Amino acid sequence: MIADFSTIVARDMGIRRGGRWILRPTTFGITSGVIGLAGPPCSGRSALLETLATLRRPSVGTLELLGHDVTGPAGQRAVCARLGLLPDRFGWAAGVTAREYVSYAAYFKATPKHAVDAILQRFELSDAAELEMDMLPADLRLRAGLAATCVHRPDLVFLDEPLASIAEPDRDELIGLIRELAPAVVVTATDAAQLTGWCDRVFSIVRARLIESLEVPRSWSRVPAGV
Amino acid sequence: MSDLGRVLRIDARRTAPFLAVPVLALLGAVAAWRALLPGVAYWDDAVAALFASVRVLGPASAALGAWVALREHRLGYLRGLSVRSPALGPLLDLMLLGVVALTAYVVVATFVVVKTLLHVQAGHPQVIGLLAGALTLLVYTVIGYLSGRAVPRLPTVAAAAAVTCLWGIARPGTWTYLLPPPGVEHIHPFAGLRTELLVAQALWSLGLGTLLVTCYLWSVTRRTRLAVPIVAAAAVVTITTLWIHAQQRVPLAPRAFEYTCRQWPLTVCVHPALRTALPSLEAALTPLATRLSGTPGSFTRVEHRPDSDFPRPMRGVVYIHLRDLSPGYEHRAEQEIQISLLDARTCGNPAHAAGVRYTALVSAWLLDETPPRLTDVAAARAFARWAEIRRRHWLRTHYVRYHSCTLRGQDFRVV
What we know:
The complex is a heterodimer of chains A (227) and B (415).
Chain A: E1 8-17, E2 20-30, E3 33-38, H1 45-52, E4 60-65, E5 68-69, H2 73-79, E6 83-86, H3 98-108, H4 113-122, H5 138-150, E7 156-159, H6 168-179, E8 184-189, E9 201-206, E10 209-213
Parallel strand pairs in A: 3-8, 3-9, 6-7, 7-8
Antiparallel strand pairs in A: 1-2, 1-4, 4-5, 9-10
Chain B: H1 3-14, H2 17-35, H3 43-73, H4 76-79, H5 88-118, H6 127-150, H7 154-169, E1 191-193, H8 195-221, H9 227-247, E2 252-254, E3 260-262, E4 267-270, H10 278-292, E5 299-304, E6 316-320, H11 329-341, H12 344-347, H13 353-366, H14 377-385, H15 388-404
Parallel strand pairs in B: 4-5, 5-6
Antiparallel strand pairs in B: 1-2, 3-4
Helix pairs in contact in B: 2-3, 2-5, 3-5, 3-6, 3-7, 5-6, 6-7, 6-8, 8-9, 10-11, 13-15
């Protein structure tokens, strides 16, 4: 079902790569909250995320983000300032500190300098800001990645397997952080089980089809997203 | 430091300038050194050496460009979803890569210019040649970077280097050797690069580089106003290609010059690019001139001529054709004069085979070489015993037979 106020609206949207369907034409709408997207490696999960983030174009169908048709360059330009993307195994320039890394992102998001300090503080990175990214433990590195992704306060954030390398004790704290990133957050994982319990909706990619899991325990989703 | 300055500093790390510039400069300097004519200080040859360095620097720069694009791909999530123009990131990369490549090129150019200046230079500095080389190098860099952007895979780095290297050494048609970087190995004295061709080559590189960059920018921005530079650049490339095609592989033109001479004891005149050779040529050729004095082959003037120029011999004048001053050039000049003393028609006659051997014996003396082994041992021993003065007298009386390779054994037994 597609609500009038949907953040993401895909109509008959399909993605083909190398002559095969990564995602068969499908129609779906996402309003807000934390949306889980599960699929094993090479299932096309990252390609779908990049398509939703406007870095790739859908092969067929239309895609609207935040009320703009992003299949054309005008729509992409209109929404790109309101999007954030953190890829799987995200990269950074060698030798940069956490602050330089976030500042680098802030420059391309045309965000004022004070926003960097603010988001470093918000993500509890002030003490680690001058450490090189290579030296940071996985959870702090993810916090820096999230800070770079959200330094411009986006309305819609895409995170590709953000918790893949995070140890169990740190996960709950980071899940709380992820839920507060933006009004709508799309998170991926290899298995739907990793997403259930804290995502408001969970989709799975099965044989190039997008299928929604109807039973999602709502322990975390009681906390409103986008606070 | 400004925000842009901070971003540039971070991006600059990916181009590894402190490693890339010295490596590129070293590669370019070695290539230029190998291309420079030994001992010759000639501005046109200096430009040819710069093109030779671009043929090596270019593929290395293309590989660096592809490598940077590959590493940039990992930051696409930060730079791609930008409120700034999507062209900003690639343009910053291209600017940094251009700075790295041009810095290395400036080092190589400085090396070539200083080397030409330190020796006694000839000709005139061709600034347009320097510019054409720089623009060609930038085209290589753009090709490497854009191929890395198009296919961000590790093999692209090797492919970019291989394809651009192939373009430098093998071209599909003969006229395409005039396209930048031109396949001109050496510019010998007496000839010069054609300025209008260098201008066309500079424009061709500028047009192609602009076309590639603007086409790429259009693909990421879809801005219709980019159509104007795209069409203009395509027109420049087309027109210059047609013009270069019409030149049909004629990169060189005769260059006016005035001989540099040394007057005593012989008059030796060479192209000014080889003027450093005058003292050693004088020293090497004077004994030969002394030995030939009083014979029809005597000479008092030695003239350096272009490779393809063999003027009708004049009395008392001999011609030498030196391409460079690589070791042994004095002896090569002596040999050329000695060969010019002989009548090729009669010396090539098999009936005079014995005479040719006696002639070789005399030639070895003229050139201060080891005498050849003769079957006529008596003649060889007799000639070896003679004093220098006696040999000269003997040559005056037997010059005609020496010239025609018709010397006989009894010629060496005369008292």
